[in-house]
Write a structure and sequence with these properties.
Blueprint lengths: L19 E3 L6 H23 L1 H8 L6 H16 L1 H6 L5 H31 L8 H24 L7 E3 L6
Helix pairs in contact: 1-3, 5-6
Protein backbone atom coordinates (compact mmCIF):
# COMPACT_ATOMS: atom_id res chain seq x y z
CA UNK A 1 0.00 0.00 0.00
CA UNK A 2 1.48 3.32 -1.05
CA UNK A 3 1.48 6.07 1.51
CA UNK A 4 1.40 9.69 0.62
CA UNK A 5 4.28 11.83 1.69
CA UNK A 6 3.34 14.23 4.47
CA UNK A 7 3.61 17.89 3.63
CA UNK A 8 5.86 20.03 5.73
CA UNK A 9 6.31 23.66 6.61
CA UNK A 10 10.05 23.15 6.33
CA UNK A 11 12.06 23.57 3.18
CA UNK A 12 14.30 20.77 1.97
CA UNK A 13 17.80 22.04 1.22
CA UNK A 14 17.60 20.54 -2.28
CA UNK A 15 14.44 22.37 -3.28
CA UNK A 16 14.69 25.24 -5.72
CA UNK A 17 14.61 28.58 -3.95
CA UNK A 18 12.63 31.60 -4.99
CA UNK A 19 14.19 33.82 -7.65
CA UNK A 20 16.53 36.51 -6.40
CA UNK A 21 17.33 40.07 -7.41
CA UNK A 22 21.05 40.80 -7.48
CA UNK A 23 22.25 44.00 -5.87
CA UNK A 24 23.62 45.95 -8.87
CA UNK A 25 26.33 47.45 -6.65
CA UNK A 26 27.47 43.97 -5.47
CA UNK A 27 26.64 41.36 -8.14
CA UNK A 28 29.46 39.01 -7.12
CA UNK A 29 31.32 39.32 -10.45
CA UNK A 30 34.78 39.55 -8.86
CA UNK A 31 34.07 36.56 -6.65
CA UNK A 32 32.72 34.50 -9.52
CA UNK A 33 35.87 35.21 -11.55
CA UNK A 34 38.06 34.28 -8.58
CA UNK A 35 36.13 31.02 -8.08
CA UNK A 36 36.59 30.02 -11.72
CA UNK A 37 40.28 30.91 -11.72
CA UNK A 38 40.90 28.91 -8.55
CA UNK A 39 38.91 25.90 -9.80
CA UNK A 40 40.82 25.96 -13.10
CA UNK A 41 44.11 26.25 -11.19
CA UNK A 42 43.14 23.23 -9.10
CA UNK A 43 42.53 21.16 -12.22
CA UNK A 44 45.71 22.40 -13.91
CA UNK A 45 47.72 21.48 -10.82
CA UNK A 46 45.92 18.30 -9.80
CA UNK A 47 45.62 16.51 -13.13
CA UNK A 48 49.39 16.39 -13.78
CA UNK A 49 49.87 15.11 -10.22
CA UNK A 50 47.59 12.20 -11.08
CA UNK A 51 48.66 11.36 -14.63
CA UNK A 52 52.20 12.74 -14.94
CA UNK A 53 53.37 11.89 -11.45
CA UNK A 54 56.91 10.67 -12.13
CA UNK A 55 57.88 13.48 -14.54
CA UNK A 56 56.42 16.02 -12.10
CA UNK A 57 58.34 14.56 -9.16
CA UNK A 58 61.53 14.57 -11.23
CA UNK A 59 61.22 18.38 -11.38
CA UNK A 60 61.36 18.49 -7.58
CA UNK A 61 64.02 15.85 -6.89
CA UNK A 62 66.72 14.08 -8.87
CA UNK A 63 66.08 10.89 -6.89
CA UNK A 64 63.83 8.19 -8.31
CA UNK A 65 60.47 8.59 -6.57
CA UNK A 66 59.38 5.72 -4.35
CA UNK A 67 56.07 3.98 -4.99
CA UNK A 68 54.83 5.64 -1.78
CA UNK A 69 55.76 9.11 -3.07
CA UNK A 70 53.99 8.38 -6.36
CA UNK A 71 50.83 7.14 -4.62
CA UNK A 72 50.69 10.04 -2.16
CA UNK A 73 51.26 12.56 -4.95
CA UNK A 74 48.41 11.02 -6.95
CA UNK A 75 46.13 11.13 -3.90
CA UNK A 76 47.05 14.78 -3.34
CA UNK A 77 46.27 15.48 -7.01
CA UNK A 78 42.88 13.84 -6.61
CA UNK A 79 42.19 15.88 -3.50
CA UNK A 80 43.22 19.10 -5.24
CA UNK A 81 40.90 18.33 -8.18
CA UNK A 82 38.11 17.45 -5.73
CA UNK A 83 38.51 20.82 -4.02
CA UNK A 84 37.39 22.44 -7.28
CA UNK A 85 33.86 21.10 -6.66
CA UNK A 86 32.88 23.50 -3.85
CA UNK A 87 34.40 26.37 -5.81
CA UNK A 88 32.28 25.52 -8.86
CA UNK A 89 29.15 24.95 -6.74
CA UNK A 90 29.60 28.46 -5.29
CA UNK A 91 29.94 30.00 -8.77
CA UNK A 92 26.31 30.57 -9.88
CA UNK A 93 24.46 33.68 -8.78
CA UNK A 94 21.77 31.71 -6.98
CA UNK A 95 20.75 32.07 -3.36
CA UNK A 96 22.28 28.74 -2.35
CA UNK A 97 25.57 29.33 -4.18
CA UNK A 98 25.98 32.88 -2.94
CA UNK A 99 25.31 31.81 0.64
CA UNK A 100 27.91 29.04 0.37
CA UNK A 101 30.76 31.31 -0.77
CA UNK A 102 31.84 32.34 2.72
CA UNK A 103 31.72 28.73 3.95
CA UNK A 104 33.79 27.60 0.97
CA UNK A 105 36.37 30.31 1.65
CA UNK A 106 36.55 29.50 5.37
CA UNK A 107 36.95 25.78 4.65
CA UNK A 108 39.69 26.22 2.06
CA UNK A 109 41.34 28.87 4.25
CA UNK A 110 41.44 26.40 7.14
CA UNK A 111 43.38 23.96 4.96
CA UNK A 112 45.81 26.71 3.99
CA UNK A 113 46.09 27.69 7.65
CA UNK A 114 47.21 24.15 8.45
CA UNK A 115 49.53 23.63 5.46
CA UNK A 116 51.44 26.93 5.55
CA UNK A 117 52.85 26.49 9.08
CA UNK A 118 53.53 22.80 8.38
CA UNK A 119 55.56 23.64 5.27
CA UNK A 120 57.46 26.38 7.10
CA UNK A 121 58.12 24.07 10.05
CA UNK A 122 59.47 21.39 7.70
CA UNK A 123 61.67 23.96 5.99
CA UNK A 124 63.11 25.25 9.29
CA UNK A 125 63.53 21.93 11.11
CA UNK A 126 64.08 19.28 8.44
CA UNK A 127 65.27 20.99 5.28
CA UNK A 128 66.24 18.40 2.65
CA UNK A 129 65.51 15.61 5.14
CA UNK A 130 61.80 16.34 4.58
CA UNK A 131 62.24 14.89 1.10
CA UNK A 132 61.44 18.23 -0.52
CA UNK A 133 63.89 20.96 -1.48
CA UNK A 134 63.76 24.04 0.75
CA UNK A 135 62.92 26.27 -2.20
CA UNK A 136 59.93 24.09 -3.04
CA UNK A 137 58.62 24.25 0.53
CA UNK A 138 59.00 28.03 0.66
CA UNK A 139 57.47 28.46 -2.80
CA UNK A 140 54.48 26.26 -2.00
CA UNK A 141 53.94 28.05 1.33
CA UNK A 142 54.16 31.39 -0.50
CA UNK A 143 51.52 30.42 -3.06
CA UNK A 144 49.18 29.22 -0.31
CA UNK A 145 49.87 32.35 1.75
CA UNK A 146 48.95 34.60 -1.18
CA UNK A 147 45.70 32.69 -1.61
CA UNK A 148 44.97 32.90 2.13
CA UNK A 149 45.60 36.66 2.14
CA UNK A 150 43.14 36.99 -0.77
CA UNK A 151 40.51 35.05 1.18
CA UNK A 152 40.96 37.23 4.28
CA UNK A 153 40.83 40.38 2.15
CA UNK A 154 37.59 39.32 0.48
CA UNK A 155 35.88 38.11 3.66
CA UNK A 156 36.83 41.00 5.96
CA UNK A 157 37.71 44.00 3.80
CA UNK A 158 35.56 43.54 0.67
CA UNK A 159 32.70 41.19 1.65
CA UNK A 160 30.47 42.84 -0.98
CA UNK A 161 32.59 41.03 -3.58
CA UNK A 162 30.84 37.84 -2.44
CA UNK A 163 27.64 39.34 -3.89
CA UNK A 164 24.36 40.43 -2.37
CA UNK A 165 20.80 39.62 -3.29
CA UNK A 166 17.19 40.14 -2.28
CA UNK A 167 14.59 37.41 -2.66
CA UNK A 168 11.73 38.27 -4.98
CA UNK A 169 8.51 38.58 -3.09
CA UNK A 170 10.29 39.23 0.21
CA UNK A 171 8.45 41.27 2.81
CA UNK A 172 8.79 45.01 2.36
CA UNK A 173 8.80 44.91 -1.44
Amino acid sequence: MATSRPTSKYVLPTTISRPINLDPSAPGSIMRSALLIEALSNFLGGIPMIFLTRPLLSLISSETPSPLAVSLTQWLGGLICGLAAPLLLAYPNTKRAMESRTTVYWTLGAGEGALIPLMLWQYMTQGQASGLPGGFLLGAAGVLAATAVWRVWVMFVRPEWMGRYREEGAKGE
